[in-house]
Batch of 2 targets.
Target 1
Amino acid sequence: MSPAITVGVLGATSPAGQQVLAKLAAAGHRVVAFSRSAQPAGEADAVRWVSLSDSQAEEAARATGPITVWIALCHIWVVGEHFDFMRRLGAQRLVCLSSTSRYTKVSSQNAYEEALVQRLSDGERALAEWAEGASIGWTVLRPTLIYGRSTDRNLSEIVRIIRKLRVFPVFGRAGGLRQPVYVDDVAQAAVLSAFAPEAADKGYNISGAEVLSYREMVTRIFKAMGRAPRLLTVPIWLFNSALFFLRLIPRYRNWNSDMVQRMNRDMVFAHDEAARDFGFKPQPFVLRDIDVL
């Protein structure tokens, strides 16, 4: 990677965004980090923060010169709001995050999840059409279940339930296979693919190095928290009966019966193409203290 390149990062305050900024700065790049709200200046001189809500955002971004490489870590269906903005600032290369939920939730009967699948697929299609029309190289990364640094919405919710209930409910055998990917590895994939010519105009599934059952994943979370695993097997019919009342609680309003079925469904995605084209090499599912705070 050339240290002379300026990289723009959208969604810079997201969990993966923080790690992307660190990796880019460590590699010697100049970075313009964009967020919807004003952010305090960071310690790294390589990172310049620009608020998208500022009417002078484009002028502030231009102060660093052309921004040729972009990494967008916001929802992929939101990236389209910034297409013209990125092109005016000199975009030649763009990496965006989508999700393997595009495939795992495609059969869901839940309106929220149906809409999510549609937004993901529409976002990917809009990106490819715009980028190809503008002669900008694009890459889509579809992570599996992202975890790590106590900043995700997946593993952190399991940790929260364990702390509150001291047990974790599972449904049926909970034998569906998972391939969790660490947030740092997602960030590394974004940075590597942004500078890999072979990754241009392609989409990749990115997953962790280890395949394990949902039950085993939860068991390891208990152990990482220093607790003896206590999994409560709940009959599926009982969960479905209680679902109406659970959805009255704002935190659980999008819960649905398909979630139970997915706990027993395999969600494994190979990352061989990412390894071949930009050297993606994820870590196994190993939890540290920072991951279960």
Note: The chain is about 40% helix and 20% strand.
Target 2
Amino acid sequence: MTAARMTAAELDVFLRTELPQMFDYDDLTIEHADGRTCRIRQRFRESMLRPGRTVSGATLMVLADCAMYVLLLSAIGPVGLAVTTNLNINFLRKGLAGQDVLAVAKLLKLGKRLAVGEVNLLSGSSPDPIAHVTATYSIPNT
């Protein structure tokens, strides 16, 4: 695998500049990114919930995709046009109201044109994942 080409601080600046519609609030924090793994925290908001007071699937999918994007950029540098080509999610248990959601991502394969990774989504301090995600990203020619 590769060493980080962008630090968590550099990623934060890049994402807030390139994707202000997604990163214009302070409830997403890049806690770690090293080119092989990353960890992102989404602070709890009531708008994350669906009926039954569980974290919505849409919230989890967005966070997982965001984690993969951050992970990929930490590995390859500021290539804003890298895009998701596949995302598969398995919902394992209920994400609880009032709890932050953590996305812990790992790069499984980094090629010239495709990157494959996995993300475990965690609720609060529980070690048991609430969802497991695999994703593939397309890397444009630079």
Note: The chain has a mean pLDDT of 93.
